[in-house]
Amino acid sequence: MMLKELREQVYEANMALVKHGLVVFTWGNASGLDAERGVFVIKPSGVDYDELSPENLVVCDLDGKVVEGDLRPSSDTPTHAALYRAWAGRGVGGVVHTHSSAAVAWAQSGRDIPAYGTTHADYFHGPVPCMRGLTREEVEGNYELETGNVIIAGFADRGIDPMAVPACLVRNHGPFTWGVDAAAAAYHAVVLEEVGAMARDTELISPRCGSAPQYLLDKHYLRKHGPNAYYGQN
User: Fold this and answer.
1) What's residue 26's pLDDT?
2) 215 tagged catalytic
3) Ramachandran region of residue 194, left (φ > 0), alpha (ψ -120 to 50) or beta?
4) Domain locations in the chain as residue ranges
């Protein structure tokens, strides 16, 4: 893929966050990876979406250092870089972070988003996990890098495949999503916000409803994912 094409894809992913109401002001960012070159394209820090263009996105290496661009990259760049370093080999090629309201509410509560139904299971094979809160030392050190480290360690500790559950919450902070490219990461951010709102409303109606049966959750996930998937067109 040409770097110009990747810039355009990442621009479209960032603008999708605006289109779907997931960002207010500059509260979000999307990035996309060029694994062959070992670089990723990301939104510049604090730039209003009205001023965003493919040309003013920033190119960084996998250490998060700028290799192309005149603006400073997103302050969340070290988090994105950490996820790419850990998971690019597992298929992660795009990362998104937002402060969308339903997902943030679950993050602030310190709770996983439970798998209450088939809409959730179509995209996430299990609850969307909430990572532990960062320690004082982590926050006062390399905060954004440690955020990535907490996500990576949380998935490893819980034995979660990041491609089967392409999203998480960081406690007291907010959601991160990912996918095979920036468009998929943005798509998962939209889905995460929707299922977060559905789960919240489910608990308001029936606080003790319990998770959906695992066989039903498995059926809905596996009919869309994996070698025997049959949803949609070939």
Assistant:
1) 94
2) no
3) alpha
4) 3-222
